[in-house]
Amino acid sequence: MEDTTMMDGSQALFSDNVFTIIPNMLSEERVDQLTRDIVAAGGTVKPFDASYGRIDRLKDIRYIISATADFPDFLSAFELFIHIVKPSWVDSCLKAGKIKNPRTFSPYPGLFMSDVVVCCGEHLPQGDKEAIEGGIIAAGGQFSPVLSKLVTHLIALDVEDPRCTLAGSKRLRVQKLLPHWFDDCLKVGRRISERPYTLPDPEYLSVEAKAPPPTRTSPYIRDATEPEPVMDLQTLTPPERLEPARAIKAFTKKKVMLSGDLELNDHLKAVITSMIQAGGGEVTTEIDDADMYVCNYREGAHYIKASQEKKDVGNLSWLYYMIIHDLWTNPMRRMMHYPRPRGGIPGFAEKKYKISISSYTGEARVYLESLVKASGAEFTKTFRQDNTHLITAHKQSEKCEAAQEWGVHVVNSLWLEESYASCKEHTLTDPRYTYFPTQTNLGDILGQTEIDRNAVEKIHFPKIRKPRAEKTIAHDDPVPASSGPKSKPSNDPVARSSPLAEKTRRTKTATDVVTPSRRVGDGKENETPGTAGSRGAKNRAMSKLHEAAPDIAKFEKEMKRKGGVIHGRDRGKDVEKTDKPKKGRGRDSNSSKRSIDEVDEDEETEDERLQQEAANKNKKAKKGKAAPVEFRVSISKYSPWDDEPGLESRDKGKLRELGLMIPDSCKVDILCAPKPVTTKKFLCSLTYGPTLVSESYVAYALKHNKLPPPEKHLLHDPNFEDEYGCTLEKAVERAKQNQKRLLRDWTIFCSKDLGPFDSYKAIIEANGGTLLAWNGRTTTATAGKRSLAAEQEVSQNQAEDEADVLYLISDGDSKHFQNWKKFRELAKKHDMTPRIVDKNWLTHVAMAQKIYWDPCWELTEERAKLMQKP
Fold this sequence. Notes:
Layout: E1 18-21, H1 28-40, E2 44-45, E3 63-65, H2 74-79, E4 83-85, H3 87-96, E5 117-120, H4 126-138, E6 142-143, E7 153-155, H5 162-169, E8 175-177, H6 179-188, H7 238-241, E9 255-258, H8 266-278, E10 282-284, E11 292-294, H9 301-308, E12 312-314, H10 316-325, E13 354-358, H11 362-375, E14 378-379, E15 389-392, H12 398-406, E16 409-411, H13 413-421, H14 453-460, H15 499-510, H16 532-559, H17 596-617, E17 631-635, H18 645-658, E18 660-661, E19 670-672, H19 680-686, E20 691-693, H20 695-704, H21 720-724, H22 728-738, E21 747-751, H23 757-766, E22 770-774, H24 792-795, E23 805-809, H25 817-829, E24 833-837, H26 839-848, H27 861-868
Parallel strand pairs: 1-2, 1-3, 3-4, 5-6, 5-7, 7-8, 9-10, 9-11, 11-12, 13-14, 13-15, 15-16, 17-18, 17-19, 19-20, 21-22, 21-23, 23-24
Helix pairs in contact: 11-13, 16-17, 17-18, 19-23
Organism: Lophiostoma macrostomum CBS 122681
Region (Disordered): 462-544, 561-626
GO biological process, one term: double-strand break repair
């Protein structure tokens, strides 16, 4: 929360606070102005020695004023809890007359909403306002409950909002945006361009898909696109690279060691040495004397020693950057400034990934190409069918269309960057890596990810361990000369131990050598003498663990779902049970990568395991094992279970013994029901084209302890054809043809308070469509004409699709009339025909698995009034 404490007249605003100003990226005039303002407000400014480049007596500083986090003492100041703020913090404090929250002015790149002050429109729901407020503050921004001159972004639904009108009348310099901008920023984890979300005519809501703008060169990758720079440093001379006198000198009083793996020729090495000397530094051949170590790869004794002692370790590209700009920079801030792992990061080379890129040009393309190669994967300039991944800035390209057709993973650059930064492959089930905001070019956020020092340390230069005990040595522990750097007093506040920690360490040291426990020859766990009481505790803990096993299994199963629990049901096309992934790739072969169907199979395997356990616990189970799964069945409305819930659990265990698994998902081989019913389970399961059987199938199996042939218990309904215009057999045949794509490209609306909304949503999504809640706001909804399916088997069931009709599911309540009017305006806006229907339209289309129309489903104000008359 922001500190709103006001200063009284007897105390100045910055009284008793010591400041220092980092002149990096600040003009001399700006530094002088900040100094005068701080002193006038009672603060003390400690001059920064630009020739040395470091902060003297860092512990005495309360606030560090810096435009960027890229200065040598940033990490040390962060660990000492010293406030690091941007220059605008001083201006904001003086203007408000109070100390503002330093966190919202932090230059730390992880707080991507820094410098953003958000205010919400009056028409925005209260719950949305609270969510935006919490998200903005968590991301380093500020939230203002009232519209003022300090506000930079006004979140509103339309320009008719009173606060948008007020901002226009007061001529405030504020960006008026849809709330979708904030949502997409959170989804990506970066601040993206506001252009597509800007009111009054946001491109985000445009029906016609326009190509996103071209990629702009991100400032985060300038002069940091390749680990081995191609620039000719030999043509530079010191006068050409000198910056103003107030700039930080990169090499002043620094000793630089050049690694042998750079393979520099004598002439180039002499040129680099002269450049470093011109900056006030020198080149050394001793790692103990060096302050900076330059190498190509993360290997070797010198690399490990320099990294463990927290020296600056970077590559040749990093060195060139500092020479040209005469500016120190953290080598871990930019991917291509830090040494590469030889062989790449785990997973990329072993799995033989072939990666191509799309929609990137210039420096962005060079940067991604270098990053792919550094990760250990193969980069292909031409996108081919055997590629495993396509990295793109947006999905509106021919390569993306081909990737979807060939089954190639389409991801954004965050997946590659964060995998490389953390030294491990990140899972593609994280929605951040497959999300592409509408009308946005994600190339703008390229290069904002930094190397994860903790991850690199864990793999490439782990902490030194004492030979006498298997424990990590603290920073202030003495280190043997043969195993690491010389002992030095630690200034790291995190490394220094508290008295309690020291006591604990001494106690552990005294008991490091423990008598090995004897082995017991009867197959039991090893036991230490005198621990009989601990065995009882262990047994009780194991008992509780077994009791919690079903809940743990369910949790693990839900964690496997793509997108989590909410978006995890009814995904992908059905495949036969006997199919197995093939190693080959291509149009006619199964992909070896983890697909949506494979996730479904994992869920079914987990369901099978849970039901296997239930069957094994059943008293009638023979030899403690159940039969292999023969069919997956969905049971809707089984009447014997209605009045006795306990019977259902026992029967399901018994069915599993016989080879029937009842999964949580609707992906089944058999659908059992007393008759065709319009329940969510029945209509969602029908999309997979299962065999329809009656209740007698389950009753027979339970009675005779064996599975009967499904064809002898087929479901029949003489009234089905009269009601739905086709036979049950024809509906199942159509479902197999449709392959869950009957409503593909459909956007259907439903009155917000019409229940059960979740059931309607599940049915529509099971058929490939999208359902949105309709609240009467035309500016927050979008729709577009549908293109008829290209595949003949699917299009024959969509032959009656009028393509330009927009549907709203509602009822005859007069309270919806105003929303109906707004819905017709929305359809007209998008050049579509509005059609307001009751729920029977959806149930008939889903049951018949065919697009067709009956005027009796349409709702009008006149018909609704007649329906309401007694």
